[in-house]
């Protein structure tokens, strides 16, 4: 069938269905920030932001969002889930200035007869009552046929009859969820083709879930069957195994089906990080498109291939998503990976020096140490026995912590050769150290402490309680992300090590740019 130039609409439901994720709840201000980013930066076609009648805080957030969206001309893209409750959900939505109701109805005979204890005719009468009221209040109405995938399988006549009875009621989109994520791509294709053949003038959406890891494939096959709206969430957020990933769906529809999608894919990674931070749900490093490692080559052979003309590139280039390709440093990395990293940091080394450095990296990799690109200047300095990265050295450090007591730290440090003493207190040993260190740096240098984004502490798998602890801290410094590492048997000292590294990197780049 002719697929090209067909435009598929994406409906994001991170803020409604995504919020069903275990332990995820977005406070109103975060909800508004995510919604604004999705609408304005990513340019999502449709956005479901809440369930009606949930809470007053939620209502305030939706109201604020609608007010903003009205001034931007985007308010008709915002949708709210509501219930078959005659006036209640509709009034809630109109109070917030909303324009679209996504009505939740029962899409399977089982749900209708066992949960509602109603016949289809009774249920349809209730639905029509709510729809009529919504239309009279100026809302546009879409309808979810909840549990449609099971309904279609177990009681198809119920599904056909329901759509037939509602098709002329003023409802715009009939939204067909695979509520339990049980379908396969073949089943999606066959069932949706059937629905579209029976009701050729009806707009159907498909709403996949990812229980079998098939959500993206199912979205693709729904579109192949002729569906023109797909529901998804950022980072696959959602109940159980989550919904379909917005990033994957958008990219698959474009690359694999040659379709147009309206979103700006350059914003996908940014939005993913925003939602990761606000939801507190970390995505795996190998998550397609948005994971930390998906544009990192770990094998030296691949880096060599890249050097010789993109032998290991696909249509999934990092540039599309405003990301950069990187080359891992570890025991698998070869000469080419190292050369790429040195080049990126403007470090020039002789052949002989590069060989020695590589040996060192391979050895560290063997000891299960992870090496970040930021480690490289320190390894080089060590190798060349240069001191120019050690602007600040910790000479002595004592940490006192106790239950229900502020932690106290006293330090003796050398800053560019002069010895300083300082003390600090805080919420834990690490915080106390930062406060002591800030005092020293304020006396000595103009130093802006970067924002701490992430603090990861781990003992390598198989390690004992006495093992070396590795701490990786992610900092945001003037828009740039910096990751530094510290290793120590003492957990707080590992964090302190990572912090000293960050300070030395910053002081070094400051001194070199001062000249
Ligand atoms: Zn869902």
From TrEMBL:
Classification via Pfam families: HCS_D2, HMGL-like, LeuA_dimer
Keyword line: Amino-acid biosynthesis, Branched-chain amino acid biosynthesis, Leucine biosynthesis, Manganese, Transferase
InterPro entries (alphabetical): 2-IPM_HCS-like, 2-isopropylmalate_synth_dimer, AIPM/Hcit_synth_CS, Aldolase_TIM, LeuA/HCS_post-cat, LeuA_allosteric_dom_sf, PYR_CT
Gene3D superfamilies tied to this protein: 3.30.160.340, 3.30.160.740, Aldolase class I
Domain Pyruvate carboxyltransferase: 8-269
PANTHER family for the chain: (R)-CITRAMALATE SYNTHASE CIMA, HOMOCITRATE SYNTHASE-RELATED
Purpose: Catalyzes the condensation of the acetyl group of acetyl-CoA with 3-methyl-2-oxobutanoate (2-ketoisovalerate) to form 3-carboxy-3-hydroxy-4-methylpentanoate (2-isopropylmalate).
Family membership: Belongs to the alpha-IPM synthase/homocitrate synthase family.
Protein name in the entry: 2-isopropylmalate synthase
């Amino acid at each position: 069938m002719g697929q090209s130039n067909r435009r598929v609409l994406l409906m994001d439901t991170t803020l409604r269905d995504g919020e069903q994720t275990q332990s995820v709840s977005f406070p109103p201000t975060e909800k508004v920030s995510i919604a604004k980013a999705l609408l304005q930066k990513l340019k999502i076609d449709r956005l479901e932001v809440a369930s009606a009648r949930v809470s007053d805080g939620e209502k305030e957030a939706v109201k604020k969002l609608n007010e903003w969206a009205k001034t931007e001309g985007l308010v008709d893209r915002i949708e709210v889930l509501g219930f078959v409750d005659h006036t209640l959900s509709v009034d809630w939505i109109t109070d917030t200035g909303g324009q679209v109701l996504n009505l939740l109805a029962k899409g399977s005979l089982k749900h209708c007869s066992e949960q509602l204890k109603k016949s289809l005719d009774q249920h349809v009468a209730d639905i029509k009552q709510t729809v009529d009221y919504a239309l009279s209040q100026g809302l546009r109405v879409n309808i979810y046929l909840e549990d449609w995938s099971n309904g279609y399988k177990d009681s198809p006549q119920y599904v056909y009859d329901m759509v037939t009875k509602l098709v002329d009621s003023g409802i715009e989109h009939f939204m067909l969820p695979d509520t339990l994520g049980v379908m396969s791509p073949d089943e999606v294709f066959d069932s949706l083709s059937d629905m579209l053949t029976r009701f050729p003038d009806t707009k159907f959406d498909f709403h996949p879930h990812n229980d079998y890891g098939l959500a993206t494939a199912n979205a693709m096959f729904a579109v192949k069957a002729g569906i023109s709206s797909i529901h998804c969430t950022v980072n696959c957020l959602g109940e159980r195994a989550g919904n379909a990933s917005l990033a994957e769906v958008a990219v698959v529809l474009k690359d694999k089906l040659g379709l147009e999608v309206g979103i700006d894919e350059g914003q996908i990674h940014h939005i993913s990080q925003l939602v990761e931070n606000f939801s507190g749900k970390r995505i795996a490093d190998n998550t397609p498109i948005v994971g930390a490692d998906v544009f990192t080559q770990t094998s030296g052979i691949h880096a060599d291939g890249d050097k010789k003309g993109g032998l290991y590139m696909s249509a999934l280039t990092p540039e599309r998503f405003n990301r950069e390709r990187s080359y891992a440093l570890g025991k698998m990395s070869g000469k080419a990976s190292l050369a790429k990293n040195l080049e990126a940091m403007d470090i020039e080394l002789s052949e002989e020096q590069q060989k020695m450095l590589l040996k060192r990296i391979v050895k560290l990799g063997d000891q299960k140490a992870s090496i970040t690109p930021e480690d490289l200047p320190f390894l080089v300095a060590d190798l060349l026995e240069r001191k120019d990265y050690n602007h600040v050295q910790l000479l002595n450090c004592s940490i006192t912590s106790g239950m229900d007591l502020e932690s106290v730290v006293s330090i003796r440090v050398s800053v560019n050769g002069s010895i300083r003493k300082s003390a600090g207190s805080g919420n834990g040993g690490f915080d106390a150290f930062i406060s002591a260190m800030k005092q020293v740096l304020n006396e000595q240098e103009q130093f802006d402490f970067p924002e701490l984004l992430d603090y990861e502490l781990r003992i390598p798998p198989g390690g004992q309680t006495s093992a070396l602890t590795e701490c990786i801290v992610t900092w945001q410094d003037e828009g740039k992300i910096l990751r530094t590492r510290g290793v120590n048997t003492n957990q707080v000292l590992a964090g302190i090590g990572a912090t000293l590294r960050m300070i030395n990197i910053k002081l070094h780049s400051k001194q070199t740019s001062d000249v």
